[in-house]
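hey so u asked for the seq, here:
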Amino acid sequence: MTQPVPVSFLSTIIQDAHKRSTELISGLDASQLMGPKLRTVNPLRWEIGHVAWFYEKFILRDLYGYTPYNAEFDNIYDSIEIPHEVRWDLPLLPMNKIMEYIECILDRCLSRLGHGTASEIDSYIYQFATFHEDMHTEAYTYSRQNLAYPKPIFSKSKAFLNADMVPSDSLVPGGYFELGATKNERFVFDNEKWAHPVLLEPFNICKTPVTNRDYREFVIDGGYLTREFWSNEGWNWRQTEKAECPIYWQRSGEGDWIVRHFDTIKDLHLNQPIIHVNWYEANAYCLWAKRRLPSEAEWEAAALGEVSPDGNVLTKSKRKFPWGDAPCDASLANLDGYALSPIDVGALPKSDSAFGCRQMIGNVWEWTASTFTPFDGFSPDAYKDYSQPVFYETKVLRGGAWATRSRMITARYRNFYTPERRDVLAGFRTCSL
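ran it, structure tokens below
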């Protein structure tokens, strides 16, 4: 169920997503647009064609019966049917032809929209397809980091003030919390359906994510080499990868830690959140620190929850965003890529939730303890393979990261990755035991 939105809104977001894709492939040569065969990235030349195919398939063809632009594209750009490892070997179009295809599909999608208020189905599918491109542009961004390509240049930029903040816990009272989305939201992803009561015990959660300063202490103390801090699966991963620190950290000549940021080496900003760590690393840190990851219900309650007048119990009502009902802007969240990195965990005090938890939207995705599973009564939407194939195989992350688009992220949004992924823009915050 989707609330009808103005056609002008759909037109604006789809064109903005296209602009971001163009910015992220700009300046890359033919070799970089293909890149090495890695399990964690796609060849960008394939990926941008896949995004255009997605618009064509799910809007123009499936809903409105358009003739395929090229029937062979189903054998090239269908991400469900085309195995990841063969995408470098497909008969991909040259870049000028790919761009012609992308521009043609964009024009067809825009031309058929009309004016005024969009239908409910158009309001859903155009937003979903745009958000699908947004997810891919975030992937293009962390792929450029993964492959040590130059940082992208966006048409807008934003500098944020540095701000230190001493990590401290906040008590979230127990009670029944409505986890998930209600039917009056503007847009709902299938795995958010529907809000249902979850009984939570009182818990203490840190007001900020774990910082580079915090995590450096874990590394210095030998946390990566101490078996007792790791699950069996995590220890096997660590040994296989020979991991001794976060993936992009390096030792400086003076013996301290520095970090690779795209194609340059930078000092480690101690007040910024740890980023590019996987679920195993997050759990190992928690065991070392005698802490734990929050469940996704605890995380959402800390972000959106409200309390009774006496402050003793959670109420069924919850906020639209951690800070209230105001839409996201740069005073509230580090989103949309404009900072080109995380910012200090103490920045943006206006973003605080009812419990004083800061930056629960933006900056870094936050791992939770929860496995990604369907809520009771789940049913897939038009893109049936969005959630179902990875239920029970992935872990839930919440909150969005600095490259996530503000138009799609909410504190209800359930992201999901397999627990070994540390190329993605993920960090975490912790709860007391």
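The chain has a mean pLDDT of 95. The chain has two domains: 7-146, 158-433.
lmk if thats what u needed
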